[in-house]
Structures are given as C-alpha cells and as structure tokens.
Amino acid sequence: MREVAIIGIGMMKWGELWEKSLRDLAVEAALNCIADAGTDRIDSISIGCMSGGLFNGQEHLASMIPDYLGLKHTPAMRVESACASGGLAVRTAYMEIASGMADYALAIGVEKMTDVSGGEATYGLATAADQDYEAFNGINFPGLYALMATAHMHRYGTTREQLADVAVKNHRNGNLNPNAQFPALMTREQVMSSVMVAAPLRLMDCSPITDGAAALLLTTVEEAKRLGKHPLVVISGIGLATDTIALCQRKDILKMPAVEIAAQRAFKMAGKTIRDINFAEVHDCFTISEIMIMESLGIVEPGQGGPATSAGLTALDGKFPINTSGGLKSKGHPVGATGVAQIYEVVTQLRGDAGKRQLANAKVGLTQNMGGSGGSCVIHILEVKS
Amino acid sequence: MREVAIIGIGMMKWGELWEKSLRDLAVEAALNCIADAGTDRIDSISIGCMSGGLFNGQEHLASMIPDYLGLKHTPAMRVESACASGGLAVRTAYMEIASGMADYALAIGVEKMTDVSGGEATYGLATAADQDYEAFNGINFPGLYALMATAHMHRYGTTREQLADVAVKNHRNGNLNPNAQFPALMTREQVMSSVMVAAPLRLMDCSPITDGAAALLLTTVEEAKRLGKHPLVVISGIGLATDTIALCQRKDILKMPAVEIAAQRAFKMAGKTIRDINFAEVHDCFTISEIMIMESLGIVEPGQGGPATSAGLTALDGKFPINTSGGLKSKGHPVGATGVAQIYEVVTQLRGDAGKRQLANAKVGLTQNMGGSGGSCVIHILEVKS
C-alpha cells in the first residue's frame, strides 16, 4: 500500500450562501485547493455529499462537478454515508492513491442545504435515520440526540451547564476562524436561554443548516517530497466502522460502537493510541455528541465528558483541544462537506497556519466524522512527517 | 496493486416486488452471493444505489444494509453515479482489495423504485440530468434519448425497425433468463405499435421501472486460488470516465466520450482491445443507447449499430453477443443494481452456468454501465484465469 500525503486544502466562508449553487460551492472549494497545492494535476475525484437529490433535485454530481471544474472525462465518484459523507470521500481518495488507481486524487465535500425550507431540510436529514422504524414515526435527529442527552444526564449526572459549555467553547474557537458561519461569541446563559428544540437540547445545542464545501488534494508521499512540500502532512491512519442505523437497536444508547471501533482501526493502522494525539476535530452535531465522542475515543472516562469540558480540557489552551475550527456548532454543518473540512482544519494546524487559533503543539491530529445517531463513523489520523 | 477475483455472485428475480423493501432486496442478494461464494468473510461493503433519498426517503444505506445483513461494524460505503452506481460499487470493492484495505469486499447494487408513483420515479431519474439547465426546463431521459435517436436516424439512416430489433433481441435473451422482469417474447411489430413515449421512442424502446438487487464477493486472486475456486474469474481491466452532464454541452450528441474513454482505460489496464472481447453486457436504457454504445466501444463503425443488430451480429448466436441476460430492457433496470447485475451475467457466462442462454465461447467479457445521457461510464473486463 502506497503512503499518502495531503498537498492541497481549500474551502470558503460558510453560511446561507444564496448567491452560490451546489456546483458553484464545489468548484470554488476545489479551485482554492488547487491554488493551495500549486498543481492542477488530478487523476481522480471523489465527492462527499449527503443528499443532492433531496436538497437540490440533483444526483449524478460525479458527472456535474468535474464538468464545471473544467475536468470532464476525469474518473469521479460520489460517496455517501449521511453526515459522514465527507470523511468517506477522503478515504476513497486515499484508496485511489494507495491502490495505484490514481497518483493525484481530489476529495471534495459539498452540501447546499438552503435551497429547501427548514422543514424539508429536517426531513432530508432524517433520511439518515431508519425511515421505516424511526423517521416514519416522527422522530428526527434533535429528538434522537435529546434521548441520549437525557440518558447521559440521568446515568452520569451530566448537567445542562456542561452541555452549554461545549457550545460556548466552540463559538470561542469559531470566533477566531474567518470561515465560520456563526463566529459570534456565546455565553453559557445565552445557550441556556435559547429556544427549546427537543428537551433538553436548545437551539444553541444544535449545529446549523449550512451551505458550504471543502476540498483536499492527495498524492503519494514520494510525489509530495518530489514537489518539495514542507511540512509534509500524511494520513497515517484511517478507520471506518458502522453500527445499527436505529438508535433503539443499540444495547446501550450511551455507547457509540462505530466511533470506538473506527478509532481502534485507525490507531492500529497508525501504530498509535489516543495518548499520541495532540488535538482533534470531532462531530459535534449537538453538544451532547461532543461529550459522548470524547468518551468513545477514550479521551476521558465514560461520564467525564461534561466535567472535563467545563474544566477546560478541550479548550484552545487545554491539554486536549477539540474543534479548534469552531466545530459543526460554530463553523457550520453542510453535511457532506463537514468531514473534509475537519481535515482542512487539522492540516491548517499541522502546517502552523491557523492564525489566532494556532495550537503550540500540533504534531498529530485526529478527525472524527459521524453519520446519523452513530450508524457510521470515519476517523483519520494525520501527522507531520518532516 | 493486488490482482482481484470474483468468487461469489447473487441476485433474485427482478420485478415490481411489492412484498420486498429496499433493505430486503439488498440483504437477499447479499445472502445469495455469500451462499454462492461458500464464505461469509467480509471486510468491507460497497453499495451502489442511485437515490434511496428520492425513491425511499432513505439515505445512509452504508449503515442500514450491513446492520440488516448481520454485519454491523463492517466498514461500508454507498457510492452513486446515477445509473452507473452499480458499476462504481464494484470498482470501489476492487480498490478495497487492490489497495489492501480489505481482503474480502462485498459489492451490492440495489434500487427499490416502485414505492413512489411513476411520475415521482421519472422525476427521481431526471435528477441524473442537469437539474438547473435540463430537468428544470421539462426534459427527462426519454426526451434526451429521443433527441439522440432522431439525430442518429437523420445522420446515419438508422431505421425505426433497427431500433425495434434491439428490443426484440433483448427480450429473446431475457426469455431464457429466470431472473428477468419481462421475459415475454416481443415481435418487431409489437415494439413498433407500442405507445409513444417521446418520438421516435415507444414504450418498448424504454427500459422499465424495477425493484431489484445484485451482489458480488471480491477477493485477491491468491486467496481465490487458496479457496480452490475454479473457474477462476478475474477483473483484468476497469475504466471510469465522465463527461458533461448536460447533453446540449456535447460537441456531438451522437458521440459518447465517457464510453470511449472508459473503454480505452479498461483496455489499457487489461492489455486488450475490443477484438479480444467475446461478448458484452451494455447499458440499453433505451434501444438507441445499445446502438450508440456498440459504436462507441468500436464493435462496429459509427452508424453501423442499427444494421448490425438487424443482421444478427449481437444475437446469442452472433459473432459478438450483447446483453445475453436480456439487458436493461427485458431483465429490468433497478438503476443502482444494474452495473452489478451486468457483472453477475458475465461471471455466469464465464463459469458456463448460463443454461439455455450459455455462449459457446465465453472467455473474456465486458460490461458497460452508464449514468445519465452518458455523463459517466464504468467499464469492467472480466476473464477466466484458469
């Protein structure tokens, strides 16, 4: 298997981008990535998008996006695993390089969510749950994560304040990220007095509806060295795992086996443990998610995610910074783009280019991208090789 | 790059399968494949499906299908390129093996199209065209292929009878395939008197709306030998190419560059030319498609597809049999399953298991699976290694 490096990254400021279409977003991120890489050699394109069909009446992005990027005829595919689609697109690009099918592979994540109403967007997102046994009966993702939050509070004593502190911390980071959709600072009181969505989760516990895209250019480590790329950022581990699509079929709704198993696989491949990781971007689709992911990754013991957050463990100046980009909460969550943008942030930190949110010790980073209520998870481990 | 073999195949009789859901279909095909392979070792699953979102309100198949197959936690992904989604799923499984990410990879193609009305299905399919510049203006696939058929008749003198002969031949083959949705024999007169859909294409020129699935199990050639698989069927070439999504943006609407280029790539990888191929399954979504694909693959010169069909070149007993399975026309076209089922048929022929439709000389076969009006194309070359 050939070793793989990331030599280009691109995105744009995310938000409600009325003036940009699905294809505009994908092309803009890709062109920014090509400019960053300093090469436009592309042998293969993988596109992560959750639901162009439901959000835009547009499938077949693997034809449309290369075409509008000026790269028609290039081999391309769209991959989907709900909100983990972006991470999957990067894993697919990795396989293109590792297998020798391509020498340069572009991974794009994109979602254009504001072409439909909020209700239609929520319906679209709920197709990541089990349609026949969950969504059809009226529950959607705020409701599913509210069940987890309630159980977590009951079993571990996690508090309303601790949930709020996840949002406060991520908005503090997003405030330093020029690409964030909602960079505004947020107080614990503002989070706790925001409108109720699904008790105990309030509006400021939920990631937003976002238009956005991100892109990465991958090649072999050998080729990246030949191009003189320094620092050389490599993908040293990837883990992909799945679980029951329906939350009700898990033995314990406070465990996320897909996250645990994907992490084990990525750690094994990279020859590392969680103690070797300096920082992470994780899938904080709701505040409770970040807490449960911290526990599933082994950053803290089960039940300690809330207290650790309030104690500052995961802050920019904490021992294990999480979501330096602002996370899904502040940066935004164009679902298919999120997994790609998580890696964009880790590469930015590893390169030392994160400006006011730059970490002092960013040598090995991890991204955790998740679909549904934990029905799928993709984890990448990235590090500086030289 | 590791060499890849196909050691298991599975499908079921296709049709309007009211009693089977999306998940039932995928699981049934996968279990049939596992039974055929004689092993249930599966390290990775790739699922081709065009639009679970629009047809079933269900995305995130990469979580749901492994779960219902009893394989939760297995790495899985869904891939999509409109009607070429199935071929892409096989290519993805190939990469899993070739790269060393997996030793056993299951490729599933599935589509459940009859949960929605005919109008909704036609809308869903039209999302494979350019939504903003084609579908929004009212044209859909029968209309787009009707434009090609009209131009082909005008430039080359292709006749109404020649179009009909594609359908007659494919129904004659499908009549010998127990899995075909519409195995009824069809006369030229019946095709030519069927209801008009988009002039000059009539109902019997169009592939149907179908529920169905198919699955393949891939492993390394080394592992297949260890298991004593004989005959040993290998994938010796794969080609993937894209083109403009909108038909109106092609320089010549009677050329299919994605097909030509995908074929060149597959031939190069396999070290073969079209003259080394004994038979093919091609994407006859409309009768005109099969004629144009014959020309794009170089089986005949441009303009000769119609006359060659009427002269029997592509019949079961012809020099270059095409769509021995009955093709999309007679076997049915559950869009995400088609590309996988094409390979199912080629493997069946290569193994000598095709019963009454068995070819005498089936050593090297080709599959051509296409998205939209030719915006994407995946080609596989398969052969018996021992």
Report the β-strand fraction of chain A as a percent range. 15-25%
C-alpha Rg of chain A (nearest Å):
19 Å
Main sheet specs of chain A: 9 strands, mixed
Main sheet: strand order of chain A:
3-2-4-7-1-8-11-10-9
- Regions with little confidence, pLDDT below 50 for 5+ residues of chain A: none
Tell me which protein chains meet in the greatest interface and how many residues each side has. A-B, 63 and 64 residues
Number of DSSP helical runs of chain A: 14
Question: Would you kindly provide a written description of the structure presented here, covering whatever features stand out?
Answer:
Two copies of one chain form a homodimer. Helix content of chain A is 38%, strand content 19%. Chain A is globular and about 55 Å long. In chain A, a hairpin with a 2-residue loop joins strand 5 (196-198) and strand 6 (201-202). The first copy, chain A, contains 14 helices and eleven strands. Chain A is α/β, with parallel strands linked by helices. In chain A, helix 4 crosses helix 14 (335-351) and helix 7 crosses helix 11. In chain A, the strands form two sheets. In chain A, strands 3-2-4-7-1-8-11-10-9 form a nine-stranded mixed beta sheet, with helices on both faces. The model of chain A has no long low-confidence stretch (mean pLDDT 97). At the A-B interface, helix 2, helix 3, strand 3, helix 4 and strand 8 of A face helix 2, helix 3, strand 3, helix 4 and strand 8 of B. Strand 3 of chain A pairs antiparallel with strand 3 of chain B, so a sheet runs across the interface.
